[in-house]
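[Backbone geometry]
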Amino acid sequence: MAELAEALSLTDNAVRAHLATLERDGLVRQAGERPGFRKPHFSYELTPEGEELFPKAYGPLLNRILAQVKERFGSEQLEAVLREVGHRMAEPHKAADSSALEERLEQAVELLASLGGQARIERANGKVLIRGAGCPLSEVTTHHAEICALVETLLAEIIDVPVRERCQRGISPQCCFEVEVSGNGRKASR
């Protein structure tokens, strides 16, 4: 709540009131909870009704482009192209070799935010997940799940450890990527 209040130059109470109104109107819903200093912090996501309020002109266009590439070259080639795009997108954002895993995780989440995906880091059962509140590419993932390979590759490059896509597809798609944190926290030499 404090992060949102600071970003919007509002008080915590004002943010709470706005979120309550958006929740009442069916535009947002609580998506998760994480421990806070005094009380838990909640994360919110747009509902399908809320998503409809934002223009997604990219959807039909990108769906058609991906369909044509897949038709001409096949699904494997499409995925290979998307992974290469992920590698190239990561190049200007790679952290210094000396940066700690936590810093690289935070950098990955910040990069996702800059691309329109609100994500958080979750830890459970010895696993680290980067879980999105919704999916910034939801207009495309329904028909072309290969697009998640682009984001998986982007995250793996930024965090510098193996990452596995675990996204949920359907009416309200949500991004989810499992980060391998065993061992020394770095990918094997390339």
Observations:
- The first strand starts at residue 28 and ends at 34.
- The mean pLDDT is 84.
- The two ends are 41 Å apart (CA to CA).
